[in-house]
Structure formats: structure tokens, C-alpha cells
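Question:
Now give any protein.
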Amino acid sequence: MQLRATVLGVGLVVSLLACKKGEDVKQGGDKEVYAKILGIVKDPVAIMSAFLPYLDPKPLAGKFAPARRPDFDRSATFAANGIRHAANNARQKLQAESSSIAATLADPFVAVTRACADLPDLESAAKCTKAVQALDAALQDTGGKAASAGVPEAFPRIGEKAVNDLAKKEVAPLAQAMGGGKAELAFFATLEDAAASPQAVVDGCQGAEDEGTSNMRAVEKIDEEVRKVAAVHREMLKAVCARIGRADKARSELDACVKEKEKSKALPKERDDECRRVCTAGDAVIKEGIPAATYAKIPELYKTLCEKPDAATP
């Protein structure tokens, strides 16, 4: 009896040790799987994170910042394609792994490739953004499980912290195409500065447009689509400069006519006709919208020159 009990006891210990060893092997295996998956997704997540801000670009702050930004649509489409390409790269590698863990994480990458394909407009970008957010949640979940399995390195999450040197290189052409360089930023600052001279605004806009042209030429050999982004951005700046030009001309001519009328109650007919045309141009600028703080006096000049005094006023 004692011998039998001893044998049974030894068998139980052996069985328990075998189970524990099996669990250790499983945990060690999962750790290796998670570590390999982390290596697969790290760069794609970094690239997706770098492109994400261009998927839904934010308008510049300021009363006189350009309201129409057709370059945003181009930027969103290009960024979505960059995100889709990175997600597809991760998807292919994950699906090639013989692991249920990899297969499960591949699904949200697949969803991103579908949601971010060939966006027609900014409204459609919301679907792409939502898919990327769902992927981020999956990465968080997988990262938690990887940590429990003993993986020391944290799983990447979608966001600025994930962006690495490779991602910066990938997004650099788009960043250049969308401007935001020294000349452009300085110009947008002058739009809000009431103390800026009209000439400073005009010169600043020309500098920003020239910078946009240089950026377009710099990226045109990299990729045709990124060249289109740069071209649309440059055209946006040209449109702003055209508005600035109209406003500057109206301000100058309204001011000249007002000063002449102050000196002489009656202008020669030819000059009076010219000032009437100036009133028409001034009215058009006001209706289009004053494009910079330095032109804020245009409505006052227009009223002084072009509006007839109220007959009821003594």
C-alpha cells in the first residue's frame, strides 16, 4: 500500500511538473510570436501615424487665413493612399505568419486598406480615420497581451510618438508639397497684422507663392501625385495673392480719389468717371471679403467716396 501510494505521489508530481513545463513552453512561444509581430507592424504603424495629420488637415487660425483650401482634398487623398499602402504591407506579412495571433491582428489592417482606398473627398476621409482608430484599439489590446507574455518592448500605437526616421522620410514629399515654409508662415502672419504695410503684405504673398513654386519643382520628380498636391497648394496661394492684389489696388485708388475730393469739391469729368469705376472695384473687394488686416479701412474709404450723403442729415 505504501509503495503504491508513493508511486501515485511521484506520478502526480511528474504530471504537475509536465503541465507547468507545457505552460512555460506555451508562454515562451507566445512571447516569440508577439515579438515577431511587433517587428512586423512597427514601421507600418510609424508610417501611418506620419500620414494621419494630412488625412484631416486643420485650417490655419486667424481671421484672414484662407478659407478655401482645395489642397486639403488632395492632401487627404495622398495621405490615405500612404496609410493604405503601409497597412497593406503589414497585412501581407501578418497573413503570411502561421499564427492565430497574427491572423487576428491582420483583420484591422485589412479594414484600413479598404476604408482608405482612393478617397474622393474630405468627407470620405472620416471612414479612413475611423478604421485607423479601430486599428489603434486592436494594437492596444495586442500590446497588453504581449506585455503579459513577457515582451519587454511596448507595442506601437497610432500617433506622433510612433513616428520614426523611416516614416519621416516617407511623409517628407507630402509635407513639402503642402508648404508651411518660412516665407509662407511669415506671409500668413502679416495677414493678421494691422500694422503691416500694404507693400509688406503684397511682397509677402509673392514670396509665399515663389516658395510654393520651388516646392512643386522639388517634388515633381518624386511622384506625379505629390506634384499635383504641390500644384494645387501653389494655385491656392496664387488665388490669395490675386485677392491681395485687387484689395491693394482698390485701397490705393480709393485713397487717392478721397484725397482729391477733399481738396476739390468737383473733380474734372474724366477723373470723376475714373473714381466711379474705383467705387465699383472697391465694392467688389468688400463683397469678396477683406483679405488682410491692413486693408480694414477699405469700407470706410468706400463709404466716404462712393456713398451719397443721407438727404435727411443736416
About this structure: Residues 2-55 form the longest helix (54 residues). Residues 3-27 have pLDDT under 50 and may be disordered. Residues 3 and 9 are 10 Å apart (CA to CA). The two ends are 129 Å apart (CA to CA).
